[in-house]
Design a protein that fits this description.
The complex is a heterodimer of chains A (252) and B (224). With 252 residues, chain A is an alpha+beta fold. Chain A has six helices and four strands. Among the domains of chain A are: 82 residues, no CATH class; 86 residues, Fusion Protein Consisting Of Minor Coat Protein, Glycine Rich Linker, Tola, And A His Tag, Chain: A, Domain 2 (2-Layer Sandwich). Helices cover 48% and strands 10% of the residues of chain A. Chain A has a four-stranded antiparallel beta sheet with strand order 2-1-3-4, covered by helices on one side. About 20% of the residues of chain A have low confidence. Chain B is an all-alpha fold. The mean pLDDT of chain B is 86. The chains are: A alpha+beta (252), B mainly alpha (224).
Chain lengths: 252, 224
C-alpha cells in the first residue's frame, strides 16, 4: 500500500523565496545603516584640545593672521603676495595712479610712509611671533620632560631624588617595555644581561646567561631596544652599567 | 557598500557563491523548522489518539488529522500489510488466520521498517546542504580573502608605497569575503545540529511505535 498523504505546508521553493526576502531586507538595512535616524541621535560636536600647547598663551591664536598680513601688503607692489585673489586687488589701485600724473609725488611720499609703517609693523609681528613660538616650544619640551619623568612611577621625578635613582628608573622602563613585547615558549625563562647606558642616552646590552627560550630571548632584546628609544641619559654625564635579570614577572 | 563595488572579479564571484549558500541554507532552515515542528506536534497528538482508540480501522479513518506526523505513515503501512494478510487468509478460508511463523508478523515488521526508512530519508532531505555550507563556506570565504589580499599586494607593489593608507583598504575589502563566509556558515552549522537532534528524537519515536504496533498485532491477531 502506498502512502497517500499530501502534506500541505509550503515546500522548499516557498521557503527559498522567504529566505531571499530576508536577505534582501538585511542587505538594505546594512546598506542604509548610516541613514537610520537613531544613528545620529546622540552625536554631539566634539572639541579636540591640544593639551601640550594649552598652557601657553599663543598670541597668534586669537588674531586674524591672514587678513592682517594681506591688508598692509596690498598697496606694496614688490611683495610676494601669497594669496592668489590678492593680486587683482593690488593691481587696481596702481592703474588709476598711472593714469593721473599730477598727484604722483604726493602719492609717492604717502606710499613710502605707508611702506615704512608696514615694514615696522611686520617686523614687530615677526618678533612677537618668534618669541611666542620659542615660549611654546619651551613649554612643550617641559611638558614632555615632565611626562617622561612621571612614567617612572614617581611624579615629577628628576632621577636625583632619594628612592628615584637611575637604576629603579631604568628598571621600570625595562619592565614596561618587556610587558609590551613579551613572548614565551617555556614555563619560567630567565635572561641575565648587562645593560650599559652611555652618557648620550644610547643603550647597549650583553647577554650573560640566556634562557634557552628563543622567543623570550628575542622579547628581551626587543624590550631593551624599545626602552632605549625614549631613555633619559644617566645623571652627571656618566656611563651607567648594571646587570639585570629579566623574567616574565618583571625585571630585577 | 562602496567597499563591495571596488573588489575584484574573483572576490565578487566568491561573494555571490556565498550569498547563494546563505540564501539556500536559510531557505532549508525555514523549511525544516516548519517540517520538524509540525511532525513533532502531530506525532504527540497521534500517539495520544492511538492509545485512546480501541480499533485499528477507527484510527485509519482519522489519519488525515495527523498528516504531518511520520507515525501515521508507519501506521498506514503496518495496517495495510495486516489487511493484506487477513485477506489472503480469508481467501484460503482457513480459520487459523495470521500465522506468527515466517509470513505474518515478519511481513508487518518489514513494512514498518521500510516506512521508517522512507520517513527518515524525507526528514533528512536537504540537511546535507546545511552540512556542506557549514563546512565549506568559511573556506570559500578564506579563498576570496587570500585572493583579494594577493591582488591588493600586487597593486601596492605597482604603486610603490607601503604605507598603511595604501595597504589597509585592499585588505579590508578582501576580509569581507571571510566575514560573509562565516555569516553563511554559522547558522548552517547551528541549524544542522539542531535538526539532527530533532530528527533523532523522531526516529526513536518511530522505532518505539513500530515495536508497540508489532506487539499489538501479535497479541490480538496472531495465532487466533
Amino acid at each position: 500500500m502506498k502512502t497517500a498523504f499530501s502534506r500541505s505546508y509550503p515546500g522548499p521553493g516557498g521557503m527559498l523565496a522567504l529566505s531571499l526576502v530576508c536577505h534582501l531586507v538585511v542587505f538594505l538595512i546594512i546598506a542604509n545603516w548610516h541613514f537610520l535616524p537613531e544613528f545620529h541621535r546622540d552625536e554631539n560636536p566634539v572639541t579636540y584640545v591640544d593639551m601640550v600647547t594649552l598652557p601657553v598663551a599663543a598670541p597668534q591664536s586669537g588674531m586674524p593672521q591672514a587678513p592682517a598680513e594681506a591688508e598692509p601688503k596690498a598697496p606694496a607692489a614688490p611683495a610676494p603676495a601669497p594669496p592668489a585673489p590678492a593680486k587683482p586687488a593690488m593691481a587696481l589701485p596702481t592703474k588709476p595712479a598711472a593714469k593721473t600724473p599730477p598727484p604722483k609725488s604726493q602719492a609717492k611720499t604717502e606710499q613710502q610712509q605707508k611702506e615704512a609703517e608696514d615694514k615696522a609693523f611686520n617686523e614687530r609681528m615677526a618678533k612677537l611671533q618668534q618669541s611666542a613660538e620659542d615660549r611654546r616650544q619651551a613649554a612643550a619640551l617641559e611638558a614632555l620632560r615632565k611626562k617622561g619623568s612621571t612614567r617612572t612611577g614617581m611624579p615629577g621625578a628628576t632621577g636625583n631624588q632619594a628612592g628615584s635613582d637611575y637604576s629603579s628608573y631604568l628598571q621600570s622602563r625595562l619592565r614596561d617595555a618587556l610587558k609590551q613585547v613579551i613572548a614565551t615558549q617555556t614555563k619560567a625563562p630567565q635572561v641575565i644581561a648587562t645593560i650599559t647606558v652611555s652618557p648620550d642616552g644610547s643603550i647597549d646590552y650583553r647577554v650573560e646567561k640566556g634562557s634557552g627560550d628563543p622567543f623570550f630571548d628575542e622579547a628581551v632584546q626587543r624590550a631593551v631596544a624599545l626602552a632605549g628609544k625614549t631613555l633619559v641619559p644617566p645623571p652627571n654625564h656618566t656611563q651607567y652599567k648594571r646587570v639585570f635579570r629579566f623574567m616574565p614577572e618583571g625585571v630585577k | 557598500m562602496g567597499m563591495l563595488a571596488s573588489t575584484g572579479l574573483v572576490v565578487k564571484l566568491v561573494l555571490l557563491l556565498l550569498l547563494y549558500f546563505s540564501v539556500v541554507s536559510w531557505g532549508i532552515i525555514f523549511y525544516k523548522l516548519l517540517q520538524v515542528y509540525r511532525a513533532n506536534g502531530a506525532s504527540e497528538r497521534f500517539l495520544e489518539f492511538f492509545w485512546k482508540a480501541k480499533r485499528f480501522d477507527a484510527i485509519n479513518s482519522q489519519l488525515d488529522r495527523f498528516e504531518h506526523s511520520p507515525l501515521t505513515v508507519l501506521f498506514q503501512e503496518g495496517y495495510g500489510e495486516l489487511r493484506k494478510l487477513q485477506e489472503k487468509v480469508e481467501e484460503k478460508a482457513d480459520p487459523n488466520i495470521v500465522s506468527t511463523d515466517l509470513g505474518g508478523v515478519d511481513n508487518i515488521a518489514r513494512a514498518l521498517r521500510r516506512a521508517t526508512t522512507s520517513e527518515i530519508t524525507r526528514l533528512e532531505k536537504y540537511l546535507t546542504f546545511l552540512a556542506t555550507t557549514g563546512a565549506t563556506a568559511p573556506f570559500v570565504g578564506l579563498f576570496g580573502t587570500v585572493w583579494g589580499i594577493m591582488t591588493a599586494f600586487e597593486k601596492i607593489g605597482q604603486s610603490g608605497s607601503a604605507s598603511l593608507a595604501v595597504v589597509a583598504p585592499g585588505i579590508a575589502e578582501a576580509l569581507i569575503a571571510t566575514a560573509i563566509g562565516l555569516v553563511a556558515a554559522i547558522p548552517a552549522v547551528m541549524g544542522y545540529n539542531h535538526f539532527q537532534h530533532k530528527i533523532k528524537v523522531l526516529i526513536s519515536e518511530m522505532d518505539s511505535f513500530s515495536t508497540e504496533f508489532l506487539n499489538i498485532v501479535q497479541r490480538n491477531f496472531a495465532g487466533r
